[in-house]
Design brief:
By secondary structure, the chain is an alpha+beta fold. Helix content is about 30%, strand content about 40%. The protein has helices at about 5-30, 95-130, 135-170, 355-365; strands at about 35, 35-40, 40-55, 60-65, 70-75, 80-85, 90, 170-175, 180-185, 190, 195-200, 205-215, 225-230, 235-245, 255-260, 270-285, 290-295, 295-305, 310-315, 315-320, 325-330, 335, 350. Helix 2 packs antiparallel against helix 3. Keywords: Coiled coil, Plasmid, Signal.
Amino acid sequence: MRPTTLLLALFVSVNLASAAEPVLGQQNKAAALTVAVAHPAERRWPETVPASGWLKPWHEAVIAAETDSLRVTAVLVDVGSVVSKGQPLVRLADETVRAELRSQEAALASARADLAKATANADRARKVQGSGVLSDEKINEYLIAEQTAMAGVESAEALLESQKIKLAKATILAVDDGLITSRSAQLGAVVSSGTELFRMIRQQRVEWQAEVSARYLPRIRQGLTATIVGPGDRRVKGTVRLVAPTVSTDTGRALAYVALPAAARPPIGLYVTGQIELETTAALTVPETALVLRDGIAYVFTVDADNRASRVRVETGRRNGSEVEILSGLNRSTGVVMTGGAFLSDKSFVRVTGDALVQLEKGESR
């Protein structure tokens, strides 16, 4: 081939290549993803301590019989009943108690009559004392008889009071406001003193006995807010009322007693998880959708001024709802792809929608 022909061919190929570059660039830009970009948000989040433990009664009261050999004639409440202090729960047969009460009333009347007689004799003895009408021995006898009669009256009054108390105990009353959790009382059963009839949760108060790592113990104090996750992912908030002063030598964990609201009425006996909120600290956060997990490592995609997406490794921390705290890898001014990062590759071209950016920034400022 002649030199002139070769130079002409090279010139034509260079011009064709130059003309193709804008077309290829447009094709690359046309193939780019459209993404929503926003800056990480600055939040004030409480630091939390994970915990788990049993739901138990705040205080459990045992209601028992206080009299011997009386038959149950009526059971007035059942498991699940909400009762008030002083409310009748069980009635016992009281016929024999009433009979004994009448007997004691009669004994008291007799003792008072004996006292009246002894007092009259003692008064006469005191009037003639020293006159020689009665011997000193007889006078002392009348005075001692008066004292004995007075003691007899006091004894009869005490026995009568005891019978009245026994009669009152024939009706078993609630010792406090609360919720009946178990029932042993059976109609027709003859109970003895100390026989358990019911158990109740005082004031319907349930608490979470949360086990926490001992390293958090110095930072947990009375009054902190705690949250449990109950059945059906139902969240219930409570308050730390007491922190145990000891640590288990078996588990290296301590107990925090969390009072739960009575209105929540979580079931007793469940083992639940939750968290205790410590002090509130600053957090740099992004939506959970911004994270891309690859090989167990968390990444986000950032966008530079040339609309190029770069994959950045980040370290995550706390989570709150749909937001995740970023501990390292980002700063406040970085533009982060909020969704769709899983479809991007490092250094790929993206198109940022202005409307989406403005909308996300407005949501961030709430």
